[in-house]
What we know:
Layout: E1 2-6, H1 10-21, E2 25-30, H2 33-49, E3 60-64, E4 74-79, H3 85-98, E5 105-107, H4 114-117, E6 127-132, E7 141-146, H5 152-164, E8 168-172, H6 181-197, H7 203-211, H8 214-218, H9 223-230, H10 232-242, H11 254-261, H12 278-298
Parallel strand pairs: 1-2, 1-4, 2-3, 4-5, 5-6, 7-8
Antiparallel strand pairs: 6-7
Helix pairs in contact: 1-2
Amino acid sequence: MKVIVIGSGIMGTGIAAGLLAQGIRAVLLGRDPARCASAAQQATRLAAGLGAGAKSAALIETGGINTWSEWEGAAIVIENLAEDLVLKQALFRDLDARVPEHIPLGSNSSSYGISKIAAGLPTRRRMFGTHYFMPAEIVPLVEVVLGEDSDPALGQRVCALFAAMNKKPVLVKKDIAGFLANRIQHALMREALSLIDAGIASPEDVDLAVRYSFGFRYAAVGPILQKEISGWDTTLRAGSEIYPTLSNTPTVPACLADRVAQGKLGMKSGEGFLKWTPETIASAKAEYQRKLRAAFELL
């Protein structure tokens, strides 16, 4: 199998690394040859950390986005450019004309639906959202999103393709904002931030509550199966009491908006809800990676 990955940033590098770790040939295309070569080296290192052998370096090659012509044999092309709609639309217009029609085209955009990216293109039936989660080499999920004109049967085959890459694909049957996982994640985040904003709990306790209660269980099963185990009658009774009190604010809570306005962006600025130093950042990121890898091995 050969997969063509367009974009040599963090996501493109991670996707390539995940392919190499599975022994799959990856072609990494970029506009800057030096950056692309560096990303390929980083992908090889990341793959090695996932247990890939020394031969993985031979499975990756690089090329220029505008000059690449060896599309034949590719199982899929996955775009990972910056979150710029005009840039993505221009690339897909180009791919629409250059890539043979039997090869699916995917966009890893988290901001823009494939319907908007592929609008008006002659072969948009073979275009899908293919949304990974960071770090892409570790997190198993890939959302395969059907656009307004995507071929549903081909979408099922794209899901099977990702399963063959040892990913966990889900088919999102309608191109809506946030797709599937981010909608669920933001529903949780809205309630978590609202509780902090109201002084009900500290940010640290919100994290503890999620990690060591239902979040702990979700490492084993998802929310639907978990309630199949515990019983939907209990969920109905609890939901009848809780749902009317949940936050339904259409805007982000003040505790978030105010922090961003103050430049408190998290680790990248040295402070968010917590304060950070270079040492604590390095330690927290290392622990995060260690736990993700442990979860990856378990799952």
